[in-house]
């Protein structure tokens, strides 16, 4: 497997979206076809400001994930804030319990000091789900707090 770079990740994503017309993508980005092809082939650097727009248009965030991993970070989509009811609070409580169980599973995987490929394939998605759910919970709690503050001001 050849080493990955941003251009190779973008090219793979665009190729996977066979139904997406590259000329249309260039037009939507406000650039020309030739420039887009230079970027996809890695012959020129893609302007950073275009990357989020490409990801949104293609509905694929692998290129952003690639850059985040290069910086030692993990990215995720921020959930839309929704009104929270008592039922939702119970769901959050259950989620917290599930997160604890998932983390326990991760601890079990690491207990012997050896991570097998099978364990990795099972554990990493659980861990990613925990990260995303925790982030969702953080934004939900912040949104609930903001709404309460707005009501107090009125």
Give a quick summary of the entry.
This protein is mainly α. The chain has helices spanning 6-16, 22-29, 33-41, 51-58, 62-70, 86-110, 117-153. Helix 1 runs antiparallel to helix 5 and helix 6 runs antiparallel to helix 7 (117-153).
Task: Name the helicity range.
Answer: 55-70%
Global outline: flat
Q: How can the largest sheet be summarized?
A: none
Query: Could you say how many structural domains there are in total?
Result: 2
Residue stretches low in confidence (pLDDT < 50, at least 5 long) are: none
Q: State which percent range the strand residues make up.
A: under 5%
The string of secondary-structure elements, in order, is HHHHHHH
Q: What is the SS-derived class?
A: mainly alpha
Count every beta strand, where a strand is a DSSP E run of 2 or more residues.
0
Alpha-carbon Rg, integer: 20 Å
- Mean pLDDT, rounded to whole units? 82
**Number of separate helices:** 7
Ends: how far apart? Answer: 60 Å
Describe this structure in words.
It is built from seven helices and no strands. By secondary structure, it is mostly helical. The N and C termini lie far apart (60 Å). The chain has two domains: 6-70, 434 Repressor (Amino-terminal Domain) (Orthogonal Bundle); 86-153.
Task: Throw out a few tags for this protein.
mainly alpha, 434 Repressor (Amino-terminal Domain), 2 domains
Summarize the helices and strands and which ones pair or pack.
Blueprint: H1 6-16, H2 22-29, H3 33-41, H4 51-58, H5 62-70, H6 86-110, H7 117-153
Helix pairs in contact: 1-5, 6-7
């Amino acid at each position: 497997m050849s080493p990955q770079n941003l251009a190779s990740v973008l090219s793979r994503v665009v190729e996977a979206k066979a139904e997406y017309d590259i000329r249309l993508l260039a037009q939507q980005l406000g650039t020309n076809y030739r420039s887009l092809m230079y970027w996809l082939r890695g012959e020129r650097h893609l302007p950073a400001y275009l990357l989020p727009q490409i990801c949104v248009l293609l509905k694929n965030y692998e290129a952003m994930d690639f850059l985040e991993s290069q910086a030692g970070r993990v990215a995720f989509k921020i959930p839309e804030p929704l009104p929270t009811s008592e039922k939702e609070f119970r769901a959050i409580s259950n989620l917290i319990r599930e997160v604890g169980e998932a983390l326990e599973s991760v601890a079990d995987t690491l207990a012997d000091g050896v991570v097998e490929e099978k364990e990795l394939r099972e554990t990493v998605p659980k861990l990613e789900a925990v990260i995303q759910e925790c982030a969702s919970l953080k934004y939900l709690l912040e949104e609930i707090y903001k709404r309460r503050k707005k009501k107090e001001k009125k």
